[in-house]
Design brief:
Number of helices: 22
Strand order of the largest sheet: 7-6-5-11-12
Mean pLDDT: 92
Shape: flat
CATH class of the largest domain: Alpha Beta
CATH architecture of the largest domain: 3-Layer(aba) Sandwich
Structural class: alpha/beta
Number of strands: 15
Number of domains: 3
Radius of gyration: 30 Å
Distance between the termini: 34 Å
Largest sheet: 5 strands, parallel
Length: about 575
């Protein structure tokens, strides 16, 4: 009904344009919202308020003109103007009962925009460095990104999902050296393992696999490695120390040996990440390797920035004049040793995104990347690209609690809860649901005990149980429920307060999907599903469905069936299952 009212408003504006009361080139946004106060009707719009200043007509007068020219609609009982320029719509009591037929006819397609918007969207998310298994912090970004992609597709957009693989640079070197040092220990060498190297058990596993396949091919006496770092202040500067270890490894190993170790480590972890995400119902259309950004591509970006006057030399490094575009400070593009920074590669990657012809680019980053946002937008502007096409959303990491205790996490130290362990402990459904219950910019306290519980306090269990309960009702129906036969049921018999309330909630599903897509806010759909489940449980507790009165029985079965479909469709958008039995 919301979409229909929006079209009626557009028709009214068009009539006023034909009459000369409104400019012919006026672009009117005819958005409609449900009212929060039922005394103000069922739907409302502030269209007149938004147009008033541009057309030079007081909002209250313009609202009256628009309302006067809205075409008649059987479902609308009355239209009123209110306040400084609102237009309120009151629906006939049983108008929304017609929504049950739409739901049952549409089945799994109900709630989706049947028409393509023609817009192409690229959404890049997760993009965790392949230096260790995914942990629960990555899981939130994965769930959020995947659900946003589903919502955008449901809204009619063409969506591509992309993972940017940071498979080069310093972190890849630290990973390689971490594996090599553990390999040396497996060869019987005794050495001082750097505190800033990767510490997790997965490093031992990769090293063991290399040792099984290559025996002692990469063995170099630990004494040579240890002597190279005596009295170098390693305890006082762990990061500098690990950099010197990297240099030593590259001097002892041939380029081919080092590349073998590096490739084995990165490939092992990358395969692990892919498998982990697939089991979490997160898939990608493209895995974009940073290695594919050739020197020529990065250099082309540097040349363009230089030609536009946005770079300068200082202390032997090449700098981007980022402050010219409202960034807090200028940024290094090429270090004094001649090596491009991560930032330079990221600029080339984002330029490539723009040039692939998408209407909208969405990045989902961890909140610890907040400082990266202004510099990336500045770089795109400096390259002549519209920064408005790039939306960068920051996802706060999740805090994990078990038994009331907060669990510590650190990928480098190896102290973290892997995503796969979370999935095994609480299940994929609970994890996906919990991750998107709140706005991405809000901190999330993930309660393991609650997520694993089978009680009505667990929100995902509560919603899934509503679906399973309906499935049980439909199984008990004799004769079995046929959707075609439900079309003839007398929905006018659904007059009880709980029935009307449930119908109203069902009618709001397409609006929730659209709002979730427009706002990039999965929590809107989560909130809707929780309210819908609550509305159904209230109905179920107040009224028996399988009553002896066949007409009323049929009407209530129709209501239950429609609710089952909407619950299933909503859970599908979250990639959460809709069980038939619990």
């Amino acid at each position: 009904m919301q979409a229909q009212i929006s079209k009626l408003l557009a028709a009214a504006v068009s009539r006023l344009q034909d009459m000369g009361d409104l400019p012919a080139d006026l672009d009117a946004d005819t958005r409609v919202q449900r009212t929060k106060d039922e005394s103000h009707g069922d739907f409302t719009t502030n269209l007149a308020l938004r147009l008033s200043s541009s057309v030079g007509i007081p909002a209250s007068i313009l609202a009256g003109k628009i309302a006067e020219h809205i075409p008649e609609c059987p479902g609308i009982a009355k239209i009123e103007t209110a306040g400084p320029g609102f237009i309120n719509f009151y629906m006939h009591d049983l108008t929304e009962a017609g929504i049950l037929d739409q739901i049952i006819d549409g089945k799994e397609h109900f709630g989706c925009n049947p028409e393509s918007t023609g817009k192409k969207v690229l959404i890049e998310f997760v993009s965790a460095n392949p230096t260790g298994p995914l942990h629960i912090g990555h899981g939130r970004g994965a769930a959020y990104g995947a659900t946003i992609a589903n919502l955008l597709e449901a809204a009619g957009h063409e969506v591509q999902r992309e993972y940017y693989v940071n498979d080069t640079g310093r972190q890849a070197d630290i990973l390689t050296v971490s594996v090599w040092l553990r390999y040396l220990e497996l060869c019987g060498q005794i050495l001082d393992f750097p505190a800033s190297a990767y510490q997790g058990d997965y490093i031992w596993d990769i090293a063991a696999a290399i040792h099984r396949e290559h025996a002692e091919s990469f063995l170099h006496p630990a004494e040579a490695w240890i002597r190279a770092h005596e009295n170098d202040g390693k305890q006082n500067d762990a990061e500098a120390y690990v950099d010197r270890v990297i240099e030593r490894a590259k001097s002892l190993l041939t380029q081919g040996e080092y590349e073998t170790l590096r490739t084995c480590a990165l490939d092992t972890i990358s395969r692990d990440i892919r498998d982990d995400l697939e089991r979490f119902a997160v898939t990608f259309d493209r895995w974009y390797s940073e290695l594919s950004l050739t020197h020529d591509k990065v250099q082309a970006v540097l040349d363009t920035l230089a030609a536009r006057g946005h770079t300068y030399r200082k202390d032997g490094a090449l700098w981007f004049r980022s402050t010219a575009f409202d960034d807090a400070k200028d940024r290094v593009l090429v270090r004094e040793n001649g090596q491009p920074t991560y930032f330079a590669s990221d600029i080339a990657y984002h330029l490539d995104k723009y040039e692939r012809g998408y209407d909208r680019l969405i990045n989902i980053w961890g909140a610890d990347h907040h400082g990266y946002v202004p510099r990336m937008l500045a770089a795109m502007q400096a390259l002549g690209k519209d920064p408005g096409r790039l939306n960068i959303l920051l996802v706060q990491f999740a805090n994990l609690f078990e038994g009331g205790e907060k669990l510590a996490m650190s990928t480098r130290s190896g102290e973290f809860l892997p995503l796969r362990q979370l999935r095994k402990q609480v299940g994929k459904d609970a994890a996906r649901f919990f991750y998107v219950m709140r706005k991405c910019e809000q901190h999330l306290d993930f309660d393991l005990d609650l997520a694993a519980s089978q009680t009505q306090d667990n929100p995902v269990y509560y919603v899934q149980y509503a679906h399973a309960r309906i499935c049980g009702i439909l199984r008990q129906a004799d004769p079995p429920v046929q959707d075609e036969e439900l079309a003839t049921s007398e929905t006018s018999l659904l007059v009880q307060e709980q029935e009307k309330n449930l119908i109203k909630h069902l009618a709001q599903f397409p609006e929730s999907v659209q709002a979730g897509a427009e706002q990039l806010a999965p929590h809107v759909v989560v909130s809707y599903l929780r309210n819908l489940a609550n509305s159904f449980h209230s109905f179920y507790n107040a009224h028996q469905v399988l009553v002896s009165d066949q007409a009323l029985r049929s009407a209530r079965l129709k209501l239950a069936r429609a609710t089952q479909i909407v619950l299933g469709n909503g859970l599908a958008l979250l990639d959460v299952s809709a069980p038939e039995r619990m």
